[in-house]
Amino acid sequence: MARRPRACPAGIPQHIIQRGNNRQICFVGDEDYAAYAQWLTDASQRFEVHIHAWVFMTNHVHLLATPLKAGAVSAMMQHLGRHYVRYFNRAYQRTGTLWEGRFKSCLVQSEQYLLTCQRYIELNPVRARMVGHPADYHWSSYHAHAQGIDTELWTPHELYLSLGKNSTERQQYYQALFSNPLPSEQLQRIQQSVNQGLALGNDRFRDEIEILTGVRQKILKAGRKKKKEEG
């Protein structure tokens, strides 16, 4: 089966997932997470991609990012992957691939889904039952959004900046967003969108992305098979 074309226009946020091959461990200790974070910072700056949110899990990574140039996300992830795999293989005396094929991604409608997707990303350690609250997990952008801990990796999205007049107001508002879990319907929609590479947004947004990129953004409904004509 041919690969589905990847839509990567400039200026539209993307939810990105990169998994370990066969879900194998990609981060053993804090030094691995730190190395990945530094190469991600370097690559995002080199290829002009704004990183809004992230979580580094044991065997996979979630990012929410906006490329300033078309195709910049792919260039960033390729550059990051080469450097980190080389480091990981050398550190743990192994060879071969580390990541599961190419990364998964989907475009995200800012007004309707960006903060929801951001919460989805930062709640990953909670859903995995690693911690009871996102504040308890170190390798996440929750600390930047909710606690004001700045990092070179982080570029806050303008929607986040609109949550308050100052950093204190924004952090308080953002913390309140985590008072309730995400509805299962939203979880399923986010997961389906990124796994299938379909735009995360309303019908109008998906139509606009189809026109902009020429890449189908809706699930095709199974049609009835035509009966074979006799004769």
Q: Largest sheet at a glance?
A: 4 strands, antiparallel
Strand content: 5-15%
Number of helices: 9
CATH topology: Alpha-Beta Plaits
Cα distance, first to last residue? 33 Å
State mean pLDDT (0 to 100 scale): 92
| Assembly context of the chains | single chain
Task: Name the poorly predicted regions.
Answer: 224-231
Give the overall shape, derived from the CA principal axes.
globular
Provide the number of structural domains.
1
What is the correct CATH architecture?
A: 2-Layer Sandwich
The succession of helices and strands, N to C, reads EHEEHEHHHHHHH
Classification by helices and strands: alpha+beta
Sheet with the most strands: spatial strand order: 2-3-1-4
CATH class category label: Alpha Beta
Any overview of this molecule?
- The chain is α+β, with helices and mostly antiparallel strands and 231 residues long.
- It has a single domain, classed as Alpha-Beta Plaits (2-Layer Sandwich), CATH 3.30.70.
- Helices cover 42% and strands 11% of the residues.
- It contains nine helices and four strands; from the N terminus they run βαββαβααααααα.
- The protein has helices at residues 30-46, 72-91, 110-122, 124-127, 142-147, 158-161, 167-176, 184-196, 203-213; strands at residues 14-19, 49-56, 60-67, 104-107.
- A four-stranded antiparallel β-sheet has the order 2-3-1-4.
- Strand 2 and strand 3 form a beta hairpin.
- Helix 1 (30-46) packs antiparallel against helix 2.
- The longest helix has 20 residues, at 72-91.
- The protein is globular and about 50 Å long.
- Mean pLDDT is 92; it is low at 224-231.
